[in-house]
């Protein structure tokens, strides 16, 4: 199993290109199931999750062709199976997002329940209720969601009890082919939802209000092919900015969308970073600045993202002062704390809040990655710790960070992949 070996202490300097967003690319790949015509998707990141989604489409008999420019062309003309099997869904819960497109286009879907994961129970009840509201018959049996509809789905008014990103995306994709009007209230406003909607609109869908909490969809009979470039990954961007903050120096992220990172940049400035930005870049300069602990409260966009919580927890662990981090989105997203404590971090967890007392230094240690962003926080810890840190189980990182060791090394980090 691959590990990352990091020798701490190097100051980071330079530029890093941000890859396409995993969480936008995954539903957009699924959106190709909504039409018979070819859909071409570019700026896809090279990540294990993307490979899993492509394998899932392939397992259905969908044709997926890699073009010379590295874009991917997907065509459903050859589809034979309307199923997402457990073997694939268990490795990536975002596979659930094929439910809406399969049901809306083919009238039937069988999708394995994703189950819980290292960050909490993560139910999909709101996805299922949304499909039922659109007129689907849904049964959960033997760990599978079996959904079907006679004829077309029917537009409906749907209020999400909780803001759900994949839930909004799944139901929005089902509604674009439904008969009549659908109104989604308390919908997710994340940039990835907006990117998916823009792809659907390019395919001929009629959607209004994306980026607000009320999305209105006027169903159409059929969608057509399109070419869609995926937006840059705001979480990857934020992670490299935190790397610059904790390791000192000057780090510029390029080919990003600064508007998507406002909550993160606000906290980086509060932490003492000198942050400047242009149309598609953000730079953090820590030369001579003292890193200060900050208070964080995660919540749906545009508030501070839960996917940046672990990285800021680490920032607090090496900053001056005491910072409080409150996690309101997932019930169990503090798995990185124990590992950071093994490196000398001082933290107290109480319910969904952790209070971190900043330390002058952390000490390198062998640590275990438990989920994607927890892993990112351990890599960041390794960059600042004294001595060597060996991060085990980095398959989590490979789900979400393209070429992380190459990108970090280009900024000056001493980091390499160890295979055994
Ligand atoms: C592939 C992808 O895009 N993943 C992102 C997506 O996950 P995902 O879409 O799975 O997360 P949700 O927004 O759905 O989860 C938000 C909250 O709603 C709850 N919930 C969700 C659905 C449901 O049917 N019932 C229910 O109770 C969840 O348990 C959680 O407490 O948004 C999360 C929140 O920004 C991010 O951390 C993930 O990186
Ligand atoms: C939690 C995440 O992803 P997923 O929803 O795919 O588990 C993430 O990207 O941080």
From TrEMBL:
Pathway listed: Cell wall biogenesis; peptidoglycan biosynthesis
Compartment(s) where it occurs, according to its Swiss-Prot or TrEMBL record: Cytoplasm
Binding sites annotated in the UniProt record for UDP-N-acetyl-alpha-D-glucosamine: 93, 122-126, 307, 329
InterPro entries: Enolpyruvate_Tfrase_dom, Enolpyruvate_Tfrase_sf, MurA_subfamily, RNA3'P_cycl/enolpyr_Trfase_a/b, UDP_GlcNAc_COvinyl_MurA
Biological process per Gene Ontology, one example term: regulation of cell shape
UniProt catalytic activity: phosphoenolpyruvate + UDP-N-acetyl-alpha-D-glucosamine = UDP-N-acetyl-3-O-(1-carboxyvinyl)-alpha-D-glucosamine + phosphate
Residues modified to 2-(S-cysteinyl)pyruvic acid O-phosphothioketal: 117
Domain Enolpyruvate transferase, chain residue ranges per copy: 7-408
Keywords attached to this entry: Cell cycle, Cell division, Cell shape, Cell wall biogenesis/degradation, Cytoplasm, Peptidoglycan synthesis, Pyruvate, Transferase
Biological role: Cell wall formation. Adds enolpyruvyl to UDP-N-acetylglucosamine.
UniProt keyword annotation of Cell division present: yes
Catalytic residue positions: 117
Pfam families associated with the record: EPSP_synthase
Binding site for phosphoenolpyruvate: 22-23
Protein name, UniProt field: UDP-N-acetylglucosamine 1-carboxyvinyltransferase
Protein family per UniProt: Belongs to the EPSP synthase family. MurA subfamily.
EC code: 2.5.1.7
A GO cellular-component term linked to this record: cytoplasm
Domain of life: Bacteria
Origin organism lineage: Bacteria, Pseudomonadati, Pseudomonadota, Gammaproteobacteria, Oceanospirillales
GO molecular function, one term: UDP-N-acetylglucosamine 1-carboxyvinyltransferase activity
């Amino acid at each position: 199993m691959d590990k990352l070996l990091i020798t701490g202490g190097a100051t980071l300097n330079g530029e890093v290109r941000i890859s396409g967003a995993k969480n936008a690319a995954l539903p957009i790949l699924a959106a190709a199931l909504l039409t018979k015509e070819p859909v071409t998707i570019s700026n896809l990141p090279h990540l294990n999750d993307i490979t899993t989604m492509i394998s899932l489409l392939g397992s259905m008999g969908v044709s997926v062709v890699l073009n010379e420019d590295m874009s991917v062309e997907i065509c459903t003309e050859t589809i034979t199976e309307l199923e997402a099997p457990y073997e694939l869904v268990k490795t990536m819960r975002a596979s659930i997002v094929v439910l809406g497109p399969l049901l809306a286009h083919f009238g039937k879907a069988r999708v394995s329940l994703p189950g819980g994961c290292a960050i909490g129970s993560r139910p999909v009840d709101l996805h299922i209720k949304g499909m039922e509201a659109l007129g689907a018959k849904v049964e959960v049996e033997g760990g599978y969601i079996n959904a079907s509809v006679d004829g077309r789905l029917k537009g409906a008014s749907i209020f999400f009890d909780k803001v759900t990103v994949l839930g909004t995306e799944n139901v929005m994709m089902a509604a674009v082919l439904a008969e009549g009007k659908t109104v989604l209230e308390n919908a997710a406003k994340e940039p990835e939802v907006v990117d998916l909607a823009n792809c659907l609109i390019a395919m001929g869908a009629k959607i209004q209000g994306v980026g607000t909490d009320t999305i209105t969809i006027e169903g159409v009979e059929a969608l057509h092919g399109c070419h869609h470039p995926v937006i840059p990954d705001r979480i990857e961007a934020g992670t490299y900015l935190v790397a610059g903050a904790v390791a000192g120096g000057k780090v510029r992220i390029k080919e990003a969308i600064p508007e998507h990172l406002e909550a993160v940049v606000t906290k980086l400035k509060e932490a003492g970073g000198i942050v400047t930005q242009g149309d598609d870049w953000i730079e953090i300069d820590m030369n001579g600045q003292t890193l200060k602990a900050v208070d964080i409260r995660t919540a749906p966009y545009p508030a501070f993202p839960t996917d940046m919580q672990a990285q800021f927890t680490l920032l607090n662990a090496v900053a001056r002062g005491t910072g409080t981090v409150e996690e309101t989105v997932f019930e169990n997203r503090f798995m990185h704390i124990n590992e950071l404590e093994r490196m000398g971090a001082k933290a107290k967890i109480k319910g969904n809040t952790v209070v971190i007392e900043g330390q002058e230094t952390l000490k390198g240690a062998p640590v275990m990655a438990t989920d994607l962003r927890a892993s990112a926080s351990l890599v960041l810890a390794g960059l600042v710790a004294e001595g060597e840190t060996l991060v085990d189980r980095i398959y989590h990182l490979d789900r979400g960070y393209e070429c992380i060791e190459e990108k970090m090394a280009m900024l000056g980090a001493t980091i390499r992949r160890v295979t055994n």
